[in-house]
Amino acid sequence: MPGVSAFLYRLFRRWLYAGIGHVHAPTRMIADQLRSHGYDNEIHVISNGFSPMFSPSHGGEPDGRDGRDRGRRFRIVASGRLSHEKDHITLIRAVARCRHAADIDLAICGTGPLDSYLRAQARRLLPRTRWSIGFHSHDEMPRLLRA
């Protein structure tokens, strides 16, 4: 329905955000959308977890961890709260269906209400896959993501 989006932005701006001085936006795109719809609050872009320290280093010679060395295992890392909205079960099911499941190391990093359920499903669905589910400290994550 035409105009619904603009109406909702206007409604939220007047009803929810009128007396608020600062608004958190997860991306620059969202901040720009809020500004384009007339939000005059201080809008701060605070990413939902990305930091350059979690990116692979650039430069130097390839070390085989970029997928070019086909003799090595393939690592999949998912990071986030172990809850329904993160849908980690779909990742577990996808790895289970993969013909290369035996060559995959799956790490699901986080804590939450689905911890026991996801572990049970991984035990049942991933007998050929190396997997881990659980908490990793902030200091451990860059190493894990770069491995």
Question: What keywords describe this structure?
Answer:
single chain, 147 residues, alpha/beta, Rossmann fold, 2 domains, three-stranded parallel beta sheet, 5 strands, elongated
Write the layout of secondary structure elements.
Blueprint: H1 4-15, E1 22-25, H2 28-36, E2 42-45, E3 74-79, H3 88-97, E4 104-109, H4 115-125, E5 130-134, H5 141-146
Parallel strand pairs: 1-2, 3-4, 4-5
Helix pairs in contact: 3-4
Q: Can you tell me about this structure?
A:
The protein is an alpha/beta fold. The chain has two domains: 4-45, no CATH class; 52-146, 3-Layer(aba) Sandwich (Rossmann fold). Helix content is 33%, strand content 17%. It is built from five helices and five strands; from the N terminus they run H-E-H-E-E-H-E-H-E-H. The protein has helices spanning 4-15, 28-36, 88-97, 115-125, 141-146; strands at 22-25, 42-45, 74-79, 104-109, 130-134. Strands 3-4-5 form a three-stranded parallel sheet, with helices on one face. The protein starts with a helix and ends with a helix. The model is unreliable at 58-68 (pLDDT under 50). GO terms for molecular function: glycosyltransferase activity. Residues 72-146 form the Glycosyl transferase family domain. This is CAZy families GT4 protein.
